[in-house]
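Worked example 3. Consider a protein that binds farnesyl diphosphate.
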Amino acid sequence: MPKDANDKTGPNHVAIIMDGNGRWATQRGRPRLFGHHAGARRVREIVRACPDEGVKYLTIFAFSTENWKRTQTEVAGLMALFRRYIEREAKALFDEGVRVRFIGDRMKLDDKLVSLMDNLELYTSGNDKVHLTIALNYGGRDEVTRAAQRLAFEVEKGTLTHKDVDAETLSKFLDTHVLPDPDLVIRTSGEARISNFLLWQSAYAEYEFVDTLWPDFSAAEFASVLSNYGGRERRFGAVLA
Ligand code: FPP
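Given these inputs, the predicted complex is written out as structure tokens:
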């Protein structure tokens, strides 16, 4: 059924490319990691805002498969920040009814971080108020490639044949297989790029590019960006009568 053009319901699944931490810190004469720490505080604020905004699924891009090219100091600092975030926020996330999942390739992440991620997923697995997905060592092409490898393995074993390979089957092999597709993708910091984020899943998503640097992106601005969404008409490739 095509969506009614007057339907003002907000997006169910919002995905965010949290960009601009480095510039925010540089503008203040501080090291880039200072910006990432400020960014982490915004993550907390935006997750808390989701229930009031009717956002059931929030997916955030924390670390891409390309981010390993940053300096060793920045990468190590980010990894330490992720560990600290999980340790410090687990209880509050649980109490607020947030179910946390991680997407991305865990093979390259250190054991301690992976074990914190696994435990947080398990600890919050009974929650259903907000579904927070954190993309960590995530890349859209990498995800589709890993899915294709697993599919090929099933064909090799004989559990699937090449004729079973369609969009629906491939989706089941993606990291996001339990999530709905994003309705809206927001990118902060004035850059208008997708940067390898949820390439497959965002085929019909709306995009909002805002100039604000991520550490300045408040819950009020989040609400204002979401309010633009309700006025749009999504056709999913069809023509509305
Ligand atoms: C992009 O800004 C941001 C990142 C690569 C890291 C995102 C991480 C956080 C917001 C930290 C907290 C996240 C969690 C889940 C606790 P940039 O460094 O590319 O900024 P720039 O474009 O100004 O250099």
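Take a moment to read the result before moving on. The radius of gyration is 18 Å. The beta strands are 13-17, 57-64, 98-103, 130-138, 184-187, 206-209.
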